[in-house]
Amino acid sequence: MLLPFVRSVAARRLARDVPRACSCSQGPSPRGYSRGAAGKGLVLGVYSSEKDDGAAQFTSAGDAFDKLVSGKLRTILSLCGPPLKKGKTRIFHGLHQDFPSVVVVGLGKKNAGINEQENWNEGKENIRTAVAVGCRQIQDLEIPCVEVDPCGDAQAAAEGAVLGLHEYNELKQKKKPVVTPQLYGSAESEAWQRGVIYAEGQNLARYLMEAPANYITPIKFAEHIEQKLRSFSNVKVHIRPESWITTQEMGAFLSVAKGSAEPPIFLEIHYLGAANTDDSPLVFVGKGVTFDSGGISLKPSSGMDAMRADMGGAATVCSAIVTAAALNLPLNIIGLAPLCENMPSGKANKPGDVVRAKNGKTIQVDNTDAEGRLLLADALCYAHNFNARAIVNAATLTGAMDVALGSAATGVFTNSSWLWTHLYEASILTGDRVWRMPLFEHYTKQVTDCPLADVSNIGKYSRAGGACTAAAFLKEFVTASHWAHLDIAGVMSNKDEVPYLRKGMAGRPTRTLVEFAARLSQDSHNAK
Ligand code: BES
Ligand code: ZN
Ligand code: ZN
Question: How far apart are CA 376 and CA 252, in angstroms?
Fold first, then answer.
């Protein structure tokens, strides 16, 4: 941030120097750059200097704007001291009549690309962060519209803007001002639009996860997704009631749902984007526990409110399908979301109860708080009805996943290296990373060694390898040769680890799922 003294002196001098009826409002503007409407903010990126002179290294858009103000941006930046570090900003007022406030933000190194250690594209991450920081400053100034420098990667810039500005305001009387980000200049408008769609997809998942459990009940969740998909003629949504779930003999799912007064829903979405509607679909499955109290194995009350986001698996996979439809991706996707609450009551599962899943396997419910795997067992069995290209499930499944990786990456347990490679490559681009975890027989033994049933819903060594025993449990309900289980418990919420997301439910890894689907739609091998 500019020192107040420097800002006032420099800005006053510039305000005086910038002619009012200047080339900005009447004369020619650099090719492709609009002059902007009055009252807009502008966010421009600047690379850290590679030369000793410390001169600002502008992006193309920065250069264009600097020309528009006759080199005053470069001058004022050099007056302000050393070059801007990554993610640091300076605000200039009065530089240009159409943009009363201009935020310049540090992008880091110009040639940043894939970082092999970090398993992500650092250049894209830098852009997302810088743009998010810049846009939030414009929001703090209560300016309703901001034009954004594409920074050489308009998709990443749009993602930074739309993700960075998002906040769950729904139930507050006093809301943050709405700021609409737009692309500065006319280059890369398609990539910008794609970035907006990807980010809006993640924001939809964030919205559903953040909302209180008394607002997003199973039926409300399903209706919200149905409403988002209503305008697409190639999408069919089935909201299956409890009676349907009973006919499907989903005894494991029903055993969890019956503890709550809120009826369960099985949400089924068919997106037919492929030229051939008979093409094998990608099947997404998401854990949809709209509130997880733990049931009779009750969770401690402190922090229990976060379990309103225990439908994060359902939220991310359904949002990914909404996004795929908006992008008109040429593939077929089926989305399945078993939705219910996990509550203690006279009808709830009791530790030691045995229930029967759709494939006939019996499950001993040794801990009623390990409920997600019960829903998923039945949903995974059902997923095998569709001759899927691949089955990918996402679930806020275990606290142990958070212990293992924290919020750095989603844990991926998969029986398919083909599937792993696609997910991994997608995540390098999105910056919403994945990390492969084991599906060893070692863990399977720990869930199948069970006194009363075929399988126990917890590992026999209780907490040891908790994320891995949960995955081994799910594997008992899978026969498909391309299946991946994504444990997203660690990435469920954000404190400040991802700088372009505000504190709150994160909606991760929606963009990775979308990018994965986009890659699959381009993959000529129809792997089965
Ligand atoms: N929904 C939780 C897992 C979770 C914890 C998600 C923290 C996000 C943040 C899940 O249903 C659960 O309670 N799992 C138990 C399993 C245990 C009883 C074997 C857990 O992780 O403690
Ligand atoms: Zn639980
Ligand atoms: Zn849960």
Answer: 9
> Token digits for 198?
């990807």
Q: Are 324 and 517 in contact (CB under 8 A)?
A: yes
**Distance between CA 162 and CA 159 in Å, rounded?**
5
Say how many Å lie between the CA of residue 283 and the centre of ligand 1.
24
Strands (E), 294-401: 332-342, 353-356, 362-365, 390-395
Name the residue of 340, 368, 369 to mutate for ligand 1: max ligand atoms within 8 A of Cβ: 369
The pair of three-digit structure tokens given for residue 333, joined into one six-digit string: 């996707």
Segment 138-165, tens digit of pLDDT: 999 999 999 999 999 999 999 999 999 9
Q: How far is the CA of 398 from the centre of ligand 1 (A)?
A: 4
pTM of the model: 0.93
Report cis status (omega within 30 of 0) of the bond before 351.
Answer: no
**Which residue's CA is the nearest one to ligand 1's atom 13?**
369
Q: Classify residue 415 as left (phi > 0), alpha (psi -120 to 50) or beta.
A: alpha
- Block residue for tokens 């976060």: 306
Tell me the backbone φ, ψ of residue 333, rounded to 5 degrees. -135, 135
Instruction: List the alpha helices (DSSP H) in 433-478.
Output: 441-448, 466-475
List of the chain residues with pLDDT < 50 = 1-30, 34-38, 525-528
Q: Amino acid identity of 306?
A: A
Residues ≥6 apart with Cβ < 8 Å to 45: 59, 61, 62, 104, 105, 106, 107, 127, 130, 131, 134, 149, 151
Nearest CA-CA partner of 211 in 159, 243, 171: 171
Two structure tokens written together for 255:
């055993």
Q: How far is the CA of 289 from the centre of ligand 1 (A)?
A: 11
